[in-house]
Structure formats: structure tokens, C-alpha cells
Amino acid sequence: MALNIDNETNYDEYLKPINFIATSNDHQQGSLIFFDKYDVLYTAYSNDYRDKNLQLPFISTRKLHDKGFYYARHKGNECSRIKLKSELDYTFKFITGFSYDNFAYFLFMESYNSYGLKNELRLGRICENHHTPLLSYMEIRLKCNEFNSTSSAHLSIALIGNEYEGFKLNSSSQDAKLLIGFNNDANESIVCEFSMSQIHEHFLDGYSRCTQTGRGTLIPKLYNNTV
């Protein structure tokens, strides 16, 4: 595929999303760092079994100032970081993170032991335009047929023939695709495509159930309620 680039090309549009992931030696846990379009630095950490009072926040936000990185929201600090509050030992393997259409997304494998080891693929998101963004955090569970485990994903675009559509990350006129490579215990694998517009609708549906009918569910690891 040939891509014509001229002097007016915004290279950042093509390079995003860029994120950095670090994993443990056994590749079962991982951490994630990426910037959103407002130059806010998002960091996400897995529980490393240290005392809960010493654990790093599950997700935090920072801004770069003259003297280094500071929490993006200082008021109460709770608006700058999300802490784990569950008595269960959750661990996370972050797969990717990205900023898209005014939301910051976090894709990760979640493991915990509740009457047996449970593993789920979760997609969390934060509204970047919210006055206290981390208070807007929500999650959904992703799976493809009977596959629910992954170690790779990529935010991509749809191509028509051999033409590149000039994809813009924050354009509402185009729909990005989240491509996830799933696998299972039988060493079988599959690549599944998720529409970001449909993912957005799924989040909105969950928000509506919570605010309009009261049938929402608190996220167990953040509120210490039972799984």
C-alpha cells in the first residue's frame, strides 16, 4: 500500500496511539504508560502483592511541569488516582492503552481468586473532558466466542481497497477498529475486530442502566464488594 505524505501531513495522527508496557518475568503481570491528546500521562499498575497501604494506584494521571511530573488533579488527590480496595489479590496484565474520541482506554487481562482462579479481558475507559476524569471510570468485559484471553491488540482503521482514508483519531465521522488476538488453553487462536462506535454504545448502555434504573454494578476491586 502506498501512502502519499506532503508537508501538511500531521505525523502525530498516524503515529498514535503510542504506549509503553512493562511485564513481569513470567509475563502474567504488567504496567502501562501512555499520553492522551491533552498531554496527560496515564499510568496503570498491577498489584505486586505488597502491603495494600504501599501499593501503587491502579490508574493515575500526571501532567509535566517545569519541575517534573505532578498529579493532574490536586484537589483531594483522589481525583488523580484510582486505588484498589478489594481484599482479593487482583493482578493485571495490561495489553494496550490509547486515547480515542475524548476517552482514554485501558485494555487488560484481570486475574483474581474467588472460589477458583478467574481470568477476564476487561476494557476500562475514562472521560478526558470530565471535570474529575477518574471519577468517570467504567469497565466492560470483552470476549470472542469462547475465547477470553489475549496478549496482543491494536487500534486500527478500516481500509477500502488500497486507499488510506486519512484516519483522524478524534474524528467522529470515522470508526476505528480494535483488533484483538485471542487464544485459549488448547493453543488455538483467533483475531476479532471490535467497532469502537459499538464499544461506545455498550458503555452508554451500562451508564444508562446505572443512572436510570439503578441496576448498575460497582466494580468489585475498586469498592471492596463481593464478586
Automatic annotation (TrEMBL):
InterPro entries: Semap_dom, Semap_dom_sf, WD40/YVTN_repeat-like_dom_sf. Residues 1-227 form the Sema domain. Gene3D superfamilies: YVTN repeat-like/Quinoprotein amine dehydrogenase. This is Sema domain-containing protein. It comes from Euroglyphus maynei (Mayne's house dust mite).
